[in-house]
Amino acid sequence: KLEGLATGPSTLPVRPRISWPKRVRRARLEAGREQAQVVLAWPGCAVTDPDRAALTIAEQILSGQGGRLFSSLREKSGLVYGVGAELSCGWDGGLFALSMSTEPQRVEAALSGAYAELESLAAGPDPGEIKAALQTLQASVQAHVVQMLMADHRL
User: Fold this and answer.
1) How far apart, in Å, are the Cα atoms of 121 and each of 10, 68, 84?
2) Residue 137: strand, helix, or coil
3) What is the percent of the chain with per-residue pLDDT over 90, rounded to a whole number?
4) What is the arrangement of strands in the sheet containing 36-43, beginning at the earlier edge strand?
């Protein structure tokens, strides 16, 4: 119940701004495995950021088995076992990341391929890619709404 809650301006404390590294940082952790896990990450956006829609569409275009990264790095080049993009938006900011698994000796080639796909996307997505991404996102939202309604119905 919401009765008795205070009304008026928020009493949430002011949080400090996120401080991102000024330069590229690279870390390598050796685990003695046959597979390398590679993660590339950049500052993303807040949930209220006007760039959120564009980054969400970019994530969709890059991800999945039909996405640019899988098609280029897995199907065409055979450089990775798996690859994907992820956008995580928070209240104060977020993260946009690519992750891939590959053989240790193929890390540099996989990184080059990933950067090439990002540059190609930055040059401009194909209108068909945008349409397909929007259709997938719409279906995802619809499925989520149905799940919420079904969960609400069970209460």
Assistant:
1) 40, 9, 14
2) helix
3) 55
4) 36-43, 94-102, 82-89
